[in-house]
Amino acid sequence: MDYRPSTVLVTGGAGFIGSNFVHHLLRADTRVRIINLDSLTYAGSLDNLSNLADPSRHTFVHGDICDRPLVGRLLDEHGIDTVVHFAAESHVDRSISDPREFVRTNVEGTFTLLEAARAAWLNAGTDAARERRFHHISTDEVFGSLGPGDPAFVETTRYAPNSPYSASKAASDHLVRAYFHTYGLPVVTTHCSNNYGPRQHAEKFIPTVIRNCLAGTRIPVYGDGQNVRDWLYVDDHCDALQRVLTKGKAGETYNIGGCNEWRNSDVVALICRLLDERLPERAPHMRLVEFVTDRAGHDRRYAIDTAKISDELDWGPAEDFETGIAKTIDWQLGLTL
Asked: With a cut of 50, which residues of the chain have pLDDT below it?
């Protein structure tokens, strides 16, 4: 039988993927109430929560996931039966220059949430625990880097994180797994590939390329531009998350990918071509490309095998990369021009 969330604590729900999920879930499930906990760092903005489908079913709480009394109070006072945990430091470059905050938020914060859920749900008894769900959002970066001919990551791929960011996410994944096997906390974990789409933070790769094209400033591309990523449109990701939340099996992990492997240099070329079509007076935008010194420990390739979520939960992405990028550019143009 499908799991039906009633009152959902979304952590990091003012950030990129979290805010898109809030919009998605309010549209898709007219029964659900959302308690949105976000500390509103540089990565979160209340602007991302404007024009919600039904604001009366959404409550925003400004707070830190490491604040154990606050998290416990929210679970108790709102009768929360579901946690969807997005909150994380996720900018790799920032993790290289200042890893401490990544350990605090991604490891200590996840531990705090798990402890609060364990206290609120497991103390209520086994039957009550079966009617709860803790959904942990992770990343394909915990699996490390692939060579050109290597098979895509599957759910059982050995962990091999290469940055402080991915190492902190790997640690949080292990905690979530341990709370299922040790305590019986009803958890699911999803590993996603690189997201893109509306509301993404300006520092990320695709928003940087679009923004710099519009500003007429240089487009920095790391190394030789041949690093490969599997790109997942954020709306597809949100649809997959709801599918896993409602139909996934407790204790399982599911990979979510866009089935769109692109070299960074080709991503830049596509964005420039689409902007040339929309803004011919500024063409060619490729003149702005500048190759820069590569990032330390830069993983060469990520790729996600989505066979499990496809076979077991009947999910696949709706957007190919070109249609998704076109939507992303048009959304940004609507804000800028």
From this structure: none
